[in-house]
Write a structure and sequence with these properties.
single chain, mainly alpha, Growth Hormone, Chain: A, 17 helices, globular
């Protein structure tokens, strides 16, 4: 429970840029490309920290890496809250925040894998990622509401304190937990490349890569799209809650339900369904800009549900496909590919928006989200090509 609470605190800082985006674009006079570049800088730092933390978790222990990263994230969260006051400073400090955040994610999944049997692991990872989704909800709600009412500075401070809260919760939560060292670094190096020779692991890695493209691009730009669509529909705080709820409460629900569903129905079936549904939402929502709010919000909620629903299943399936001594290295390789692709997605969508506006083609939301839908479609294809798997036996049986 404390590990999940820590995941919630870390996630409070994750969506602060996306939630404050309308306010910062006005205050700083940013273009879509500049705004997307800040999120891409965070994603790049996050990807690098995922790689390093996953890699060294095998040789140093997941618990040790997790706690070190939690401390570093607390410091960078405070630095961003206090000193990000221009596009340049925000890009640098948000990148540093991303550089420390990754170590709170992959090692926490490894800690779950070490302590939960396979027949309940999907649900356990779902709870962990669900706590993160609640943090994203709070991050979007605070950032969108406070930035419009009190200014983006207040939003940055409120969300930047989240990683400090995470550290204060994580330390006592892991006090009695052993720091397991799975294997030597040389073994991790061999394992990092050996797992790619396995068909299931290769397809899971490819599916994760395309999944990240869609998910990270959606997280960066859907709040701004919904803000534009909800303009005039209540106050800023109400809008922030609607936006956050549509994206991240639905993601919280999907993390809880899809992880458990994969325990009962099999990993492949859930991955195919979520990938296909996410692609359909990406190809649809951008063209709904002028439709009534009561039509847009349900689609946005379904989008948040489907785009995140395969996350716990992909992570759980990877822990089952790779031997424990090489799991950290395998997650590192997966992070390079996944967040390498997902890291440039916000920038790509921003450039599409700028290009559409400059060419007189309207806002460009439809084309931007359609670009993200390519990732969801490819994720569904990778899942469909996975070897058939059977539901795991329940704890009772």
């Amino acid at each position: 429970m404390l590990l999940c609470a820590s995941r919630f605190g870390s996630s409070l800082a994750f969506m602060v840029h996306a939630g404050s985006l309308p306010a910062t674009m006005r205050a700083w006079g940013m273009s879509g490309g500049e705004a997307g570049g800040i999120q891409t800088a965070f994603n790049a730092g996050y990807a690098l920290s995922l790689v390093l933390s996953s890699w060294f978790a095998d040789s140093l222990g997941a618990k040790r890496v997790f706690l070190w990263s939690s401390g570093a994230s607390a410091l960078t969260g405070l630095a961003f809250a206090l000193f990000a006051r221009s596009p340049d400073s925000a890009l640098l400090l948000f990148a540093l925040l991303g550089l420390t955040q990754g170590g709170t994610y992959a090692p926490s999944i490894m800690l779950v894998a070490q302590g939960v049997p396979a027949e309940r692991r999907g649900a356990a990872v779902g709870w962990l990622l669900g706590a993160g989704s609640l943090g994203y909800f709070a991050s979007i709600a605070l950032a969108a509401g406070l930035s419009e009412r009190l200014g983006y500075e207040a939003a940055f401070v409120a969300c930047g304190l989240g990683p400090l809260l995470a550290l204060l919760v994580a330390a006592p939560g892991l006090r009695g937990r052993p720091n397991r060292i799975a294997g030597a670094r040389t073994q991790a190096l061999r394992g990092a490349f050996r797992f790619l020779a396995d068909r299931r692991s290769l397809l899971l890695t490819a599916g994760y890569t395309t999944h990240c493209w869609e998910l990270l691009g959606m997280w960066a730009w859907l709040p701004a799209f919904l803000t534009a669509s909800l303009s005039g529909s209540g106050g800023a705080t109400a809008q922030g809650l609607w936006i956050a709820g549509a994206i991240h409460l639905s993601g919280f629900l999907s993390s809880l339900t899809m992880g458990k569903a994969s325990d009962r129905l099999g990993r492949r079936a859930v991955l195919v369904a979520m990938g296909g549904l996410g692609a359909a939402c990406s190809l649809t929502i951008g063209w709904m800009e002028t439709l009534p709010v009561w039509l847009i919000l349900p689609v946005a909620a379904l989008y948040g549900f489907s785009a995140l629903g395969d996350s716990p299943v992909l992570s759980t399936a990877m822990t089952e496909s790779v031997e424990p001594g090489s799991l950290g290295a395998a997650l590192a390789v997966r992070s390079i590919l996944g967040f390498g692709a997902g890291g440039v997605a916000p920038l790509a969508v921003g450039l599409v928006l700028d290009g559409a506006t400059g060419s007189g083609l309207g806002s460009g939301w439809g084309w931007g989200f359609a670009l993200l839908g390519v990732g969801g479609g490819l994720a569904a294809v990778c899942a469909a090509l996975l070897p058939a798997d059977r539901p795991l036996p329940s704890p009772r049986s």
